[in-house]
């Protein structure tokens, strides 16, 4: 196992931490179904690494990673 950079977040973890989903399983399904975009592009990889400034959109929510 390698240590992760503290300035990055996984997409599924980000959705959960922001309260957009209540479980990692929900996040996984939404991402795999193409319901989430990152920087305007549909993202289907739940382990996608986000960095500061990335814009995540889901449903009516638009969040910028800080």
What count of structural domains? 1
The CATH homologous superfamily is named RNA-binding S4 domain
CATH class value:
Alpha Beta
Low-confidence stretches: 1-5
Order of helices and strands: EHHEEEEE
| Global outline | globular
Largest sheet: 4 strands, antiparallel
Estimated radius of gyration: 11 Å
Helix content: 10-25%
Summary keywords:
66 residues, alpha+beta, Structural Genomics Hypothetical 15.5 Kd Protein In mrcA-pckA Intergenic Region, Chain A, four-stranded antiparallel beta sheet, two-stranded antiparallel sheet, 2 helices, 6 strands, disordered N terminus
Describe the structure.
The protein has a single domain, classed as RNA-binding S4 domain (Structural Genomics Hypothetical 15.5 Kd Protein In mrcA-pckA Intergenic Region, Chain A), CATH 3.10.290. The chain is built from two helices and six strands. 24% of the residues lie in helices and 29% in strands. By secondary structure, the chain is α+β, with helices and mostly antiparallel strands.
């Amino acid at each position: 196992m390698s240590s992760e950079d503290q300035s990055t977040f996984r997409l599924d973890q980000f959705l959960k931490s922001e309260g957009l989903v209540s479980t990692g399983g929900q996040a996984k399904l939404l991402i795999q179904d193409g319901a989430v975009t990152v920087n305007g592009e549909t993202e289907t990889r739940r382990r996608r690494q986000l960095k500061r400034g990335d814009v995540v959109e889901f449903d009516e929510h638009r969040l910028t990673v800080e």
